[in-house]
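Progress against Task 2.4 (sequence-to-structure conversion) is shown through the following example record, which the project officer requested during the mid-term review.
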Amino acid sequence: EQLGEAVGKKKMTISLIESGKNDPPQGDFLEKIILALAPSLDKEIRLRDLSALARNSIPSDFIDYFKANEEIRNAIRRAQKTNKQNADWEKIFEREAQ
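Structure tokens generated for the chain above:
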């Protein structure tokens, strides 16, 4: 009920999202929830990821960065063509950290 009040939604709307009967929040609604909950950065990222994955979309905090960086899009396409998996990406980032 308190979260609903904080984000300008009815208690039932929040309840339906929590029970999985409504799609997860997105856009301004998601931003209001994040602002109201003030989660840690890790939990905020997880919330954004879960919302996007459930909607079969890209997390909202990626969109501007993704659009502005052609090489990121190209890297993803190259990875897709060569069927790169999480372990492959981990190796790439391990090398960069050294």
